[in-house]
Known about the structure:
The chain is an all-alpha fold. It has a domain at about 10-85. Helices cover about 60% and strands about 0% of the residues. The radius of gyration is 21 Å and the shape is elongated. About 5% of the residues are buried.
Amino acid sequence: MTFMVPINGIGLSQWLLQLSSSSVVSRNVGRQTLSFASFLCWHLWLALNELYFQRKSTSPLQVIRRAEKAFSEFQASRAVEYRNQTSHFSRQQSVWQPPPRETVTLNTNAAF
């Protein structure tokens, strides 16, 4: 992926909107770009905290490398997770069975 710093002086929110709504890139590339941008913002935040609380300065290149490393690890873990899920579901078919009579059930719904 190639990332360019906007030279026209737009803010971060406008830049992220441009990344997400760009018709030039495919949907998957757009998602990867936004995902990497979130890792970059997170590592900028971490570097700012290191500077503020620990008086430790981090170069921009170090911040980018740390964000790239974390993003790569995240993508690798998702690939392994996806492979495990697909192989698990293909081997096992589950059929719902009612709980035993003396069991109390509690059904909930949650969204994150």
